[in-house]
Amino acid sequence: MPPKRSATREPRQTRSMQTKQQILAAGTKLFTEKGFHQTNSNEIAKAAGVAVGSFYAYFKDKKTLFIEIMKVHYEEQFRFIELPEENLAGVDRRAMIHRLIKSLAELHNIAPEIHQEQYYLAHTDADIQALIDEWDQAAHALILSYLQRWLADGYLRVKDLDTAVRLFGTTVEENIHALKFSKAEVNETRVINELTDMLCRYLFVEEKNKKSA
Amino acid sequence: MPPKRSATREPRQTRSMQTKQQILAAGTKLFTEKGFHQTNSNEIAKAAGVAVGSFYAYFKDKKTLFIEIMKVHYEEQFRFIELPEENLAGVDRRAMIHRLIKSLAELHNIAPEIHQEQYYLAHTDADIQALIDEWDQAAHALILSYLQRWLADGYLRVKDLDTAVRLFGTTVEENIHALKFSKAEVNETRVINELTDMLCRYLFVEEKNKKSA
Amino acid sequence: MPPKRSATREPRQTRSMQTKQQILAAGTKLFTEKGFHQTNSNEIAKAAGVAVGSFYAYFKDKKTLFIEIMKVHYEEQFRFIELPEENLAGVDRRAMIHRLIKSLAELHNIAPEIHQEQYYLAHTDADIQALIDEWDQAAHALILSYLQRWLADGYLRVKDLDTAVRLFGTTVEENIHALKFSKAEVNETRVINELTDMLCRYLFVEEKNKKSA
Amino acid sequence: MPPKRSATREPRQTRSMQTKQQILAAGTKLFTEKGFHQTNSNEIAKAAGVAVGSFYAYFKDKKTLFIEIMKVHYEEQFRFIELPEENLAGVDRRAMIHRLIKSLAELHNIAPEIHQEQYYLAHTDADIQALIDEWDQAAHALILSYLQRWLADGYLRVKDLDTAVRLFGTTVEENIHALKFSKAEVNETRVINELTDMLCRYLFVEEKNKKSA
DNA sequence: TATGAATGAGGTTTCATTCAT
DNA sequence: GATGAATGAAACCTCATTCAT
Predict the structure, then answer these.
(1) Same-domain pairing of A25 and A123
(2) How many domains are contained in chain B?
(3) Helix or strand or coil: residue B100?
């Protein structure tokens, strides 16, 4: 049976790419469910439906697979986030912050445990640490660009921009993370609301004052 | 008399207690430097200057040692923190928040990596998760008692107390943690200042309004 | 597809089967020579000419290997023994008993120590006990079918068939076993002859009486 | 408080002997319950209520303890059995056999597992094997003396005395053992009856013939 | 490329025995 | 004598990785 060519070119993955994808998927699933150290390469291969040998044909070792997964995960993350600055001044700032937080929260639905695993492994692995640093810098640059715009427009209350960027980044990231991982019953909407409030009050001059002026 | 092996032998005598302390110290050091999975029992024993057999006489296994270290660490933490409520209404609230953050930061100087390790291991280990939950609840109770006092005194701006407690806890904890672990050059004083500002603006009605009134 | 680890990997391919056979052979040899507790897994692997890892790929643990050896041994045993009943009434009964004993003795030449080891391990291991019970029942059923035939033909002297079955089984089994293990010089032919006499006199009505009738 | 000397001298064991007895008792209990290899010296010491150090003060090693236990057990056995020959010719022979079997069965109530353990350990331990051989010889001598008496009195049917002795010893010993260890419901009285019948019919000329004469 | 059996270093844990007190 | 903490050789078992097919 010859391959049925359809009129529209279907960009099928080559067999090889497919295999690699299967391993990535299986790795993500297992690292996520059981953690890096609790998952072994035979298991990953089996879950991917390939032989261990193939695993090692595509990935130098287990760590390399993990790093590739991290990369995929972060690319996905930045694809979501990278809302470049618009020139709007009159835009509702609270809404912007809120949207930013929401999209971060969205991200964490993809593979929240990877984030955790990553931070853990970073502390004994320089390669992973380097990747994280790189991404942190990208995130900080993004936040900074927001703050600078607001500063230019006279809305910003904070003085120490660099520190504010850090604080913003960590606070959002970790509260979202806690939200996803808390065993306790937590209401997501309420947490995001309060978080938004906190950041707005911290960053911006109070609306009331303006109005009263 | 049946053997009745408890998870951990609990020594009264001095020599024995000393050995246990040595193992605890060595474990703390190594887990901290290289992480749980990168440290093995022989190594711990050697670092403690005892035979492996002694390790297993005092701790059922590596995990049990880790849990005991966590407990020691947390007890220390609570010894620092538990500043009971005073009845003062006129006290400087910013100063109180600042002090709270500072003491938390202090704590992290003891064994910051243990905290990280802990959260990591929790995600595949129910025993460790249980301990963390317990302590989180204690911390939340403490924060809540502060907020309720401020609420009673009419200083509090937030409505959703429960969520605010969570937000407060996570935000302080994680920013301090990030502070200690950031590879980048970070100025501790500045971070703590901004963090304090953020939390005050979030929690309290603005002073200016009062003054203007 | 979940891992679904069966206790023992069941190989189809030739190389793999060969390896398993080698391990079984080495295990049989060593358990036989030195006993279960005096033999360790590294040793077995080395004797089989494979790595320890392979040992554990094929057998969950040492006990599992032992159980498989038992099974092989017993299958062999039953292949020898299962002489189904014929309808002959006039057949020499002494000759039948003699043949039965001889074939049991034959069996014990295969791996006599395994039998001993087995009984020993049974007393602390339920799995092994279960296997032994199963085989005992099979053996008892076989003996019973002989006795019932002789009873029907009017040759049987004993009344309490169930007890006789037990007595017969144990007596043959253990005397053969003792024969094989006695350090003293024992003449096999003489023991088997006396054993045959004893069982015939116990089971059957005396020929002389018949003749005199 | 000075020791209260009673009028009658109470032959109290010295403290030292008492300790040794405790270890022997604990060893017997544990070897019996869990087997030699499944019992460790610390456990025995604890069960005996003494320190491990004391264990090794009284017994060179674990095996030595086992051998001492064996000896105690066998002495007890021979104290029961050694019914010296009487000169009686008219005594009921079946009753004698029956009594012999019964007393053997009695013995097995003391520490039946020791017997099993013993045979097992013998096969890798020469010292234990030597002891067993010694006792077997004693038992055989005893049985032989019975048979010779019956032979002299014209009651014996068997010709091959040496082999008969062996057969008798093994058959009684192992059937009693099986009786004690069978997991199945077995009626002790019935087994002992049949066993007695079997041995009588094997050994003795039939009564009926005599009577009819 | 794909396969999966085979490898063996290395980690975990036990326990018979010693020895300082 | 008694104690029991300490020892460390040796057993058990896992799993990242290789390599012959």
Answers:
(1) no
(2) 2
(3) helix
Q: Do C3 and A49 touch (CB under 8 A)?
A: no
Under 8 Å CB-to-CB from A121, ≥6 apart: which residues? A36, A63, A66, A128
Same domain? C56 vs C73: no
Nucleotide nearest to A42 (CA to C1'): F15
Nucleotide showing the shortest C1' distance to residue D38 CA: E15
- Residue whose C-alpha is closest to residue B66's, from B3, B129, B18: B129
How would you write the pLDDT of chain D (213 residues) with one tens digit per residue?
Answer: 444 444 444 445 566 778 899 999 999 999 988 889 989 999 999 999 999 999 999 999 999 999 999 888 888 777 766 554 566 566 788 998 998 888 777 767 667 778 778 888 887 788 888 888 888 888 888 889 889 888 988 899 999 999 999 999 999 989 998 888 777 778 889 999 999 999 999 999 876 544 443
Same domain, B50 and B81: no
- Give a yes or no: residue A8 inside a domain: no
Closest CA to B188 of B200, B179, B175, B177: B179
Asked whether residue D6 is domain-assigned, the answer is no
Cβ–Cβ gap B1/D47 under 8 Å: yes
Q: Which residues of A touch B119 (CB under 8 A)?
A: 116, 120
Most distant CA atoms of chain C, gap in Å:
77
Identify the three-state secondary structure at position B200: helix
Could you give the CA distance from residue B116 to residue B182 in angstroms, rounded to a whole number? 13
Q: Is C3 on the interface with A (CB under 8 A)?
A: yes
The residue segments making up the domain with residue A154 are: 66-212
Same domain, B134 and B190: yes
3-state secondary structure labels for all residues of chain A: CCCCCCCCCCCCCCHHHHHHHHHHHHHHHHHHHHCCCCCCHHHHHHHHCCCHHHHHHHCCCHHHHHHHHHHHHHHHHHHHHCCCCCCCCCCCHHHHHHHHHHHHHHHHCCCHHHHHHHHHHHCCCHHHHHHHHHHHHHHHHHHHHHHHHHHHCCCECCCCHHHHHHHHHHHHHHHHHHHHHCCCCCCHHHHHHHHHHHHHHHHECCHHHHHHC
Domain presence at residue B182: yes
Axis crossing angle, helix C126-152 with helix C161-181, rounded to the nearest 10: 120
Which residues of C spanning 48-107 put their CB closer than 7 angstroms to strand E? 50-54, 56-58
| CA D174 from centre of chain | 11
